[in-house]
Every structure is written in C-alpha cells, then in structure tokens.
Design brief:
169 residues; alpha+beta; Zincin-like; three-stranded mixed β-sheet
C-alpha cells in the first residue's frame, strides 16, 4: 500500500504478496497489570515505541506481507483498518486494551444469502496499544503480524480458545 495514504483507510491483502514465516514467537510481550490510562510497561522495558501514524501504516503493510498467500487469497470480503486505540463499549471494563478486533461474519457461519448486500468484514489494528508493548520497528511489524493472523483466524471461524491452544492467543 502506498505510504502516502492516511491511516484508517482499508488495507486489503491480495494474496500475491511475497511471504516469509513469522519469526520465533518466544519473545511475545505480555503487558503487566495497569491502571486505566497508564502506559503499558513490561519488565526491563523503557516505554512506548515512538512511531508516526504513516510509519505505523507502513509497518502494517510490511506485516501483511508475512501472511501466507493461501490464507490471504482465501479471505473473502474483509478489509483491514488502523485506528489509534480501542474505546471500550458500554458494559465493558473501561480498562480493556485490545491490539486488534475482528468484526464480521466468519466464513464458517455464512450461508448462501450472506453475499446479498453484506458489508465487508473488518479487522482493526490498534496503533497505540501495539506501540506501548514494542521497543523497535521490527517488534511492531512482528506484533502486528501476530495480531493480524489472530484476527484473520476469527474470519475463518477459529475462536479464542482454539487460538490459545495453537499459541496465537
């Protein structure tokens, strides 16, 4: 995707991008307990990584290139967006922090009438929570790739329990 597009525009993987396996996931960051509004801190971590919205969008584009072409090609009517942060919905814990969110109808639940006027499914990547747990651009790319894979799995009908079993929770 061109770097000059503003954040928030849909990024649609086309399945023709070069693919490489995700790096070892043994250094996945785990945020510690925090008060709402406090920056996320991890052991020995200096604070949130600074990255402009344009650079973050480019990092998301780079991360999408790590998605296997077969998976990207099998996605149907889904777009990827970037937003700065998740706003908890009424009834949710106000301290809820999300790195990504899938909104839509999983492929496993679609029927023959689903295509009639359906809006695209939406995967949203939340910029600030990811920057809060990363200390380098490469960590941002890796965390975005992990988050995108997790949300794409929801598009394919895989729930959080199964993702945790597979190590993508």
């Amino acid at each position: 995707m061109p770097a000059n597009l503003p954040p928030g525009l849909p990024i649609v993987p086309d399945g023709d991008l070069p693919s490489s396996p995700l790096r070892e996931r043994n250094a996945v960051h785990s945020p510690v307990e925090q008060a709402p509004g406090d920056p996320v801190e991890t052991a020995g971590f200096a604070g949130p990584f600074e990255m402009s919205p344009e650079d973050f969008e480019e990092a998301v584009s780079d991360a999408l290139q790590l998605i296997p072409p077969k998976a990207a090609g099998a996605m149907d009517n889904v777009a990827i967006f970037i937003e700065d942060d998740y706003t908890p919905q009424p009834g949710e814990d106000p301290g809820t922090v999300l790195l990504g969110l899938y909104e839509g109808v999983p492929l496993t639940e679609r029927d023959s009438w689903w295509d009639a006027g359906s809006l695209p499914d939406r995967i949203t990547i939340f910029r600030q929570p990811i920057l809060n747990i990363c200390s380098t651009r490469q960590e941002v790319i890796d965390e975005v790739a992990i988050t995108v894979v997790h949300e794409i799995a929801h598009h394919f009908g895989i729930d959080d329990d199964r993702l945790h079993e597979l190590g993508w929770g």
